[in-house]
Amino acid sequence: MGVDMMKISTMKEVCEQLVSADSILIFPHILMDGDTLGSSVALCLAMRAKGKVSHILIEDAIPGNLKFLDGGLCTTNIDVIEQPDVCIAVDCADIERFVRRRKKFLEGKSTLSIDHHKTAKYFADINFIDSAAAATGEIVYDMLAMLGIKPDKEQGEAIYAAILTDTGNFQYTNTTTRSHLITVDLFNLGIDHGYVNRMLYQNTRLQKLHISGKILNTIKMLAGGEAVMAYVTGDMLKEAGALMEDTEGASEMLRNISGVELSIFVKEAGKKDTKFSMRSKQWVDTTELSLKYDGGGHTKAAGCTIPAPIFEAMKMMEADVEEYFAKNKEK
Ligand SMILES: [Mn+2]
């Protein structure tokens, strides 16, 4: 298969760059999730084990339930490596996913990108994009194998966290045999899966439950009950004493409603910007809805920003949703 040949050679190229580099700076995307951070951590630890200077450069806070992954690898110090041999973006579909680190990224003697988003842009010198991978963590696992590195417990737990979070604990349809097989191998390597699950999921801030309650009160059904929209504003966060990161998972929670095919969670991102996070169950392609506003993502999980105040932007999106369902239901 031509595509597979291309895939292999591209991963080889990525690995060759890593092998020949002495210093490697790793770039997870903003609003970090388990995949971007877990993949970055596994890669960083593996590179350090190979005797290389490696750090993870971040520009925003690590969500509370992901802090256990860090282990002091993450820094906000842009000068942590002066001129890195390699700058590698992890799980970033677009260079806009690291706005304030963009200049630093481009300072790398070579720039790499590894990602699995369907809408990934080829912004680096070398791009390895595999949209069949359920998580970028799977790509990192394959890369370590290609580099002859057997993940240790810490690396294995980071990869496991990446796969768990991006597959919704193996529930989403992006889950493959491969996701399970990699996990089997990680279990055999002796990871403490109970620990990872406790850290990820049994570690909820009380404020998260408070803000969830407020969000649930905003539920509006669309498309005759097949779509649902709910929102959060800055004022709601203040009242609940919560942070925006406490709304993580709201889209998935809304999608769980029976009869719902599409869920949209709306965030007020300042007075003039509104963020939309979409999830679908079976047939809605969320990238179609998000691309109209320059967004992107996966078939069943995508997002975009509309440059308008929240209630105005929601009206625009509501119209798009009604139109999408009217058009696609006829088929
Ligand atoms: Mn991912």
Topology:
Blueprint: H1 2-20, E1 23-28, H2 34-49, E2 53-57, H3 67-70, E3 74-75, E4 86-90, H4 102-106, E5 110-115, E6 126-129, H5 136-146, H6 153-166, H7 177-188, H8 193-201, H9 206-216, E7 220-222, E8 227-232, H10 234-240, H11 250-255, E9 262-268, E10 274-280, H12 286-291, E11 296-298, E12 301-306, H13 310-329
Helix pairs in contact: 2-5, 2-6, 5-6, 6-7, 6-8, 9-10
Bound molecules: manganese (II) ion.
Structure commentary:
α2 links the parallel β1 and β2. The N terminus is likely disordered. The longest helix has 20 residues. With 331 residues, the chain is of the alpha/beta class. The strands form two sheets. The chain has a six-stranded parallel β-sheet with strand order 3-2-1-4-5-6. A six-stranded mixed β-sheet has the order 7-8-9-10-12-11, sandwiched between helices. α2 packs antiparallel against α6 and α9 packs across α10. Manganese (II) ion binds next to loops.
Overall 3D shape: globular
Instruction: Determine the number of helices (DSSP H or I, runs of at least 4 residues).
Output: 13
Number of strands: 12
Please provide the ordered H/E string of secondary-structure elements: HEHEHEEHEEHHHHHEEHHEEHEEH
Largest sheet: 6 strands, parallel
Give every kind of bound small molecule, once each: manganese (II) ion
Q: Briefly note the structural class of the backbone.
A: alpha/beta
Give a short synopsis of this structure.
With 331 residues, this protein is of the alpha/beta class.
